Give the backbone structure.
Amino acid sequence: MSEGFLPYGRQTIEDDDVEAVARALRADYLTTGPTVAAFEDLFAEAVGAAHAVACSNGTATLHLAMMALDIGPGDVCIVPSITFLATASCAAYVGADVVFADVDPDTGLMTAETLSEALERAAGRRVRAVLPVHLRGEVCDLPALKALADGAGAVLVEDAPHALGGRYRFDDETGAVGDGRYGVMASFSFHPVKTIATGEGGMVTTNDGALAERLRQFRSHGMARPEGADPWIYEMIQPGFNYRLPDIACALGISQMGKLPRFAERRRRLAGLYGEALAPLAPLVTLPPPMPWSDPVLHLLCALIDFEAAGVSRREVMEGLSSRGIGSQVHYIPVHTQPYWRARNGAQSLPGADAWYARCLSLPLFPAMDDGDVERVVTALREVLRL
């Protein structure tokens, strides 16, 4: 069992990761060099996509996706309310409107039912994109969501920063999150608490070569180099951003990708131990039910706690855990309740999102944890809940 404070998530950086970054620092290119393309190629192969485009962070991936799809004023994007702020903000960046979908109260995921209800509220408006979030790493019901999006004339853009390494099986179809079978693009993040880390960083995958080219143009100031032109010639197609990921970070990403199978196996092992250790605490404490089509690599271990029945507030639980050396976090505050979106969309009732938020608490989950750390966390939770 580990000693010291256990955060809810953290990076695993080893000596070979440090050496990979040191080699990159001694190389000819610190940015826009060959290590970027090498990371992109490795990532695309790992998830089974034709193209992968590296960029500076996970939020940038979503912004670039909106720009590549030419989404703008008058367009609507549908976003689940249980997600990080960036999923909805990316639509606001390009002047589009957001209609928030409710989620299943026990999984936090957008479902066919909640998407259908959101599409009804968006009736008569131009819905361009639906952004399902693979919350915690569980895969959404992609065929059902795609069918609804297709019927509305929209595309799926998978928000998948939690789901790297995850796989799915729908009937006889199997694949990896990000392979582009259902979504025109999928976005990933390499923030330190994610499955692999580059410090900051992100990746967009797609099977559409034209979209990949637009992503790369907007990532680098909207520039293109005309075929056959003099080597110094560049043209600005339209304003873009400096969303490039430097070679230093890509070198770390390549090293981390080599550890993805080990990280995935460890996360699955720890999640299984949590399932066993928390089972006796039901119904006061439960885990979200697994999706039958999903083989996730969980990024978050979200417990659902009936704080009212326990007679203790979430803040008291978090403070009690912290005093015992256990970190925790809340994923997420429903985005539709945020002041900016309330001012734009008015007050909304999304009972599934509210029910998820009322109960969720993320417990420590990261590959460097020992098996005994799970029992340490659950023992502390029992004490705080007075069980």
In short: The longest strand covers residues 75-80. The mean pLDDT is 97.
